[in-house]
Amino acid sequence: MAEQRARSSKPTAGRGGSRATRVKGAEDAALRASRGLSKLIGHETEGCSEVTPADDHGWRVAVDVVEVPRIPDTTSLLATYEVDLADDGTLRGYRRVRRYRRGAVDT
């Protein structure tokens, strides 16, 4: 499963009362989904495993999150959340679709 690191120092659109700007492709959608979800659920994001345009002109992003960090790291509990973004990058909704141990293999 390919992961894209979702950490960046770029400011998020819409802060400080400015108008939200249109999402500029898959990388921008992944960054916005990761930041927005992290703010809402209070967990560190690990990366994005899928980014696809949604049928309703927005984006659907699968964001991987560390829900329970453990030592050793291979026993940490992670989850994948499906995040829906509007064209302007605002988070419209999310849901947890999977929870797993970091060391677990997909079947």
From TrEMBL:
Gene Ontology biological process terms from the UniProt entry: gas vesicle organization
Region (Disordered), start-end ranges: 1-29
Pfam families listed in its UniProt record: GvpO
Top-level lineage group: Bacteria
Higher taxonomy: Bacteria, Bacillati, Actinomycetota, Actinomycetes, Kitasatosporales
Organism: Actinacidiphila cocklensis
Name of the protein in question: Gas vesicle protein
